[in-house]
Write a structure and sequence with these properties.
single chain; mainly alpha; 0% strand; 7 helices; 64% helix; 168 residues; elongated
Length: 168
C-alpha cells in the first residue's frame, strides 16, 4: 500500500510496467503448471522435484518471476526509491533458497545434488541433458493456483493506474 500511496505514477509508467509484468506472470503460470499443487503448500515433506517447464533452466522460476514483478511495480510507481523493494526481495529469496536447498538435499539426496549441478539457481543454461519429468498439471489448474497473484496484480496496477490518471 505504501508503494501506491507514495507513487508518482504516470499513465506511461503504468502501461509500460504492465506490459513488462505480463511475461513474468506467464512464467509464474508455467512454473505453477510444472510444479503442480503438491509443492505449492507448506507441508512437512517437500513434494517431488520439479524437472519440467521452466525448472529446466531455473531451480527457482517462481522467485525469479516475483522479483521481476516487483521490478515492474517499482517502475510503475515512478519512484526510484521503490527499486529497494526488488533488491530486498533478492536478499529475502537468497536466504529462503539456501534453506530450501539444504532441506531438499537432505530429503532427495543424490537426485537433488544432480539437479544442483545441472540447473542454475536463478537463470541460465542448464548443463547436461534434462532427466525425464513426470506429468504436469493442466493449464486450468495452473491458472487456478495463480488466481491470488492475478488478483493482486490487477489490484496493484489498478490502484497505480487510478493514481496516475486521477492524480489522487
Amino acid at each position: 500500500m505504501a508503494l501506491v500511496a507514495t507513487a508518482r505514477a504516470t499513465p506511461i509508467s503504468v502501461l509500460l510496467a504492465m506490459a513488462l509484468a505480463f511475461p513474468f506472470e506467464l512464467l509464474r503460470c508455467w512454473a505453477a503448471r510444472a510444479i503442480g499443487p503438491a509443492s505449492r503448500t507448506r507441508g512437512e515433506q517437500p513434494g517431488p522435484l520439479a524437472l519440467s517447464g521452466p525448472y529446466r533452466v531455473s531451480r527457482n522460476p517462481l522467485y525469479v518471476a516475483n522479483i521481476g514483478l516487483f521490478c515492474c511495480f517499482a517502475l510503475a510507481s515512478g519512484r526510484w526509491g521503490a527499486a529497494l523493494l526488488p533488491a530486498l526481495l533478492v536478499v529475502h529469496y537468497t536466504l529462503i533458497v539456501a534453506w530450501e536447498e539444504a532441506r531438499l538435499t537432505r530429503v532427495h539426496g543424490d537426485a537433488y545434488r544432480a539437479l544442483l549441478a545441472r540447473v542454475p539457481r536463478w537463470l541460465g543454461r542448464a548443463r547436461g541433458p534434462a532427466p525425464s519429468a513426470g506429468p504436469q498439471a493442466s493449464w486450468s489448474a495452473a491458472l487456478r493456483a495463480e488466481r491470488g497473484t492475478l488478483v493482486a496484480l490487477l489490484s496493484i496496477f489498478g490502484a497505480l493506474a487510478a493514481r496516475a490518471v486521477l492524480g489522487f
